[in-house]
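Much of our argument rests on the idea that a fold can be written as discrete symbols. The record that follows shows the chain in one-letter code together with its fold in token form.
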Amino acid sequence: MIFRDRQEAGRLLAESLNVFQGEAKIGRLVVLGVPRGGVVIGYEIARALNAPLDVYVTRKVGAPGNQELAIGAVASSGDTVLDEGLILSLRIPRSYVDAEIARQREEIARQVTIYRGSRPSLDLSDKGVILTDDGVATGSTILAAVRGLRQQPLRQLILALPVGPPDTLARLEEEVDRLVYLRAPEPFWAVGAFYTLFDQISDKEVNRLLEQARSIRDTAA
């Protein structure tokens, strides 16, 4: 299956999450999208389930000279996940790793301000949380988000993903209460290879979707 775009992937994923409609109806479900692509997926899920939507910001820690190669990730909670084996094999200095973590934490703070402004984050206490992104490769970015969310008193954590490699999905499944995914192709190249349209998402678009999700819920209330 090749998804036409993130919107289609989100709608298909939402169909697999219909079992949680009852939880949303009684106000016990929250959808969190990892910016930026995950917010597009999350919007479709939140709209289908009539659940609130928010962001959970994580940032990849990229390798020197190849920022697309993740050697770890940082979550807005402060939690950091590092691939120590890869760092060692690439002989990456600890000074670089520490500096990159600090840089990504600054970017997280910037993004949180842009996406949320002065609004508080959604209350996740005793809630079911659906965490989503547009796909995973190594899984380090989403794992940082999962471990950060695990520090909060959630009722359950559901990870929902359109696509990812089987080994990564198997590792992530051990970290959450429930994993829902649509495709686990082997071999796996890159997340974007499984979308016909995989364009860059702007901060403006993320904000538009968050505002639209709030507007839909306010109208329905």
User: Anything to note?
Assistant: The CA atoms of residues 33 and 42 lie 5 Å apart.
